[in-house]
Amino acid sequence: MVTRWRPYRQNDQAWVEQKNGAVVRHAVGYRRYEGLQAAAVLAKLDLALRLFVNDFQPSFKLAGKARDGAKVKRSYHPPATPYQRLLADTRLDEDVRQRATAVYLTLDPIHLLQTIRAAQQERVALADQPVTDETTTVSTETATSSLEQFLQGLRTAWQGGDVRPTSQAKPKAPRGRRRPNPFAAVTALLRAWFEAEPWRTSAELLERLQQEHPGTVPDGQRRTLQRRLKAWRFEMAQKLVFGASAVGDSTEPGAAATLDAGATSGGDPAP
To answer: Does the pTM of the predicted model rise above 0.85?
Structure first.
């Protein structure tokens, strides 16, 4: 936890929470972390994050405010890092100045940033798995990647937006079927009719099915059949463009989920 609190100054709590939101939560994220291993990874992250923020991350500081009626005009000091503001303070002891300068000269911002990203990836991996054995070691590609690989990724990192592992949401399990499949007994028959005459609409196939097999599927399942035809047409297009071998490797995002979940909307009207 980053603090800026002074004894007997209760109003400083706002400054404490501001830094916790702008620095701590921004880097750690909102996942739940448990166990001694997660605490060790957090300590490694805090060490690199503290040095990176204090020595290499500039920020604005409010210099003053002037009110003109309802309008408030704010002026700011030039952006500077906490390390630069510390050296600019005339009250700083010379011994402290020399120690801070010695630490600054040994730091590499790229190496610190790589350490922060690796620790974030470790924490995300720990949060996404159940806590079992405290001695278990989590190894990830980001944590074990070399500095050269990290530098190569910085060239195109801006294209993907925020690259912090802690900012990525935890992946959710795909939604499964909630109702019985109304076409379970006639799926093979419908697929054969579709492959023989792919230009047929869902209304025509449903009407043919009800004529040849009365009582099998009610009229309310027309929208579900439309979703089936959409998935089958996509597979047929993939086969025509990429060949039969590519159909099994590349499927439409959400096609399977749509096909399965289609049975849950029994009475949806056709668009």
So the answer is: no
